[in-house]
Amino acid sequence: DKVMKLVLNKPIWTRDDLYNHSYMKQYVPDVLDYIIQNAIETGFQLKDKSGRVGHLEAKGDVFAFGIGKTDTVSERIIDRSEGTPVEIPEFVSTTESEVESVGETAKKESIQTVFDKYEWKPFIKNRFSDEVRNWYLLDNDISAERKIEAMLELDWSNPPIYAKPLLITKEDGGRMYALGSKKIYSDKGELIEGLVGSDRDAYNKWISERKDIFIDNRNNLFASMKEKVIVFNLDEKSEEIKRASRSKTIGGRTCTTYKETTLNAFSTWLVGEPFPPEVKTKKDRCMFLDLLVREAVSSGKEGLFWVTPEEFEIFNEDEHRGDLLRRLKD
């Protein structure tokens, strides 16, 4: 997705410029070679801003977005060499073992290395702690698969605040980890396919306790993540910060649906002051609020309740969402 976004924003890239872009620095070149090779060989289709269907092509060390078979972007932009054909590099078929090797290479880059390479705007980097910023990246910028890998690598004997609610302790002292809907993992890092016996008992006890805590916090402001977007339950019609009533959903509204005045008031409620002057766009306001909420949760801000994205995903399962809505109305 990141490669395609870059190519659509600028239709022609050299290999070095593309691979060294801030979006790509967290990936090793071998992985990018494989991804782009696969996109070219399979004729992966994408649309430009005008809705025209095109594809990714390569000439030497240049990648480009092309439309049609003859009038491609690279043909129009790259000067032709008269009498000397431009050779497209030969992409050798990748064996299954080679794919596994590329995957292992990608995994060698630790999640902390990914965090350290992220290019923050100065006013954010200087304002928030490493812990808060890394927590933000884990929920917002890391793929779902990579996040699960990172969560399984945690020290679960002393988990961070964003993981502690996800720990399921069995009667025999064993552990399981609730990492999303139908994503319950054993202490060996293996996905449990179908909970039975003591695993089922431990999970039922855990979900019952987490739902009780959710209901106990019904009068507090709620914040969580849904599809990598922060949501909260502010009453936009109120001049003061207070929760909105919930009758049809257990969650809240996405940050971008609120007015600037409401978001500014929320910032003041959280830390006693509105947004700094560097925060000018709605995107920046929501990013800043996302970080402020995490900081407030870490410091134990009264009146604010954070539900992990993993719990929120489970709560939205049919059997739990209906039960929680009924209990919220009581």
Structure description:
With 330 residues, the protein is α+β, with helices and mostly antiparallel strands. 43% of the residues lie in helices and 13% in strands. It is built from 14 helices and eleven strands. A four-stranded antiparallel β-sheet has the order 1-4-3-2. A four-stranded mixed β-sheet has the order 10-9-8-11. Strand 8 and strand 9 form a beta hairpin. It is globular, with a radius of gyration of 24 Å. The two termini are 44 Å apart. 21% of the residues are buried.
Topology, element by element:
Elements: H1 2-9, E1 12-14, H2 15-19, H3 29-41, E2 45-47, E3 53-59, E4 62-66, H4 73-77, H5 96-107, H6 111-117, H7 122-125, H8 130-140, H9 144-152, E5 167-169, E6 175-178, E7 184-186, H10 197-216, E8 221-226, E9 229-232, E10 253-254, H11 260-271, H12 282-298, E11 304-306, H13 309-315, H14 318-329
Parallel strand pairs: 8-11
Antiparallel strand pairs: 1-4, 2-3, 3-4, 5-6, 6-7, 8-9, 9-10
